[in-house]
Design brief:
3 helices
Length: 157
């Protein structure tokens, strides 16, 4: 991607807006606010999750049904934003994922569990009608607890 020279103050605003979008995404995901989460995607947006491309908000919402009894915490670090132009950016972030399955809020706080993995997310963001949105989100496991995780995106030969 050809990066256009942008005033540094404008670039900082874009970086902050994109980082805020990432934090909103993971917050909505962990809080199970899926309808708000999918609104962070463009209608033609896609999320490549567990090796499967979820195209459009409906497909993403449908995939969230499989995590109803999960309590998750996504700890997001090492956010890098590359501004392509005033309406396009790419991000990379690392996510340490904690997941407690079979969670019932009536039982109080879940037991602390070790992380199930470290993921690398790479995103293509675009500004649409003044708001930053995901055009494409790609999640990839870098490390995983294979005793607890049986489905993850395996490299294709």
């Amino acid at each position: 991607h050809q990066v256009t020279k942008i005033d540094r103050n404008v670039e900082r605003e874009i970086e902050l807006d994109c980082a805020r979008l990432l934090h909103r995404f993971y917050g909505f995901l962990d809080e199970k606010r899926y309808s708000e989460m999918v609104n962070l995607f463009l209608p033609e947006g896609a999320w490549v999750r567990l090796g499967e491309e979820l195209l459009g908000p409906e497909a993403i919402l449908e995939a969230m049904d499989g995590r109803n009894d999960w309590l998750t915490v996504h700890v997001v670090t090492n956010i890098r934003v590359t501004v392509v132009n005033i309406n396009e950016a790419h991000t990379v972030q690392y996510v340490t994922l904690y997941r407690h399955e079979g969670y019932d809020a009536a039982e109080g706080p879940a037991l602390v569990v070790p992380p199930i993995g470290v993921l690398r997310h790479a995103d293509h963001l675009v500004r649409s009608q003044g708001e930053w949105k995901f055009l494409r989100k790609t999640s990839r496991a870098l490390m995983t607890d294979r005793a607890r995780v049986t489905h993850y995106d395996k490299p294709k030969n």
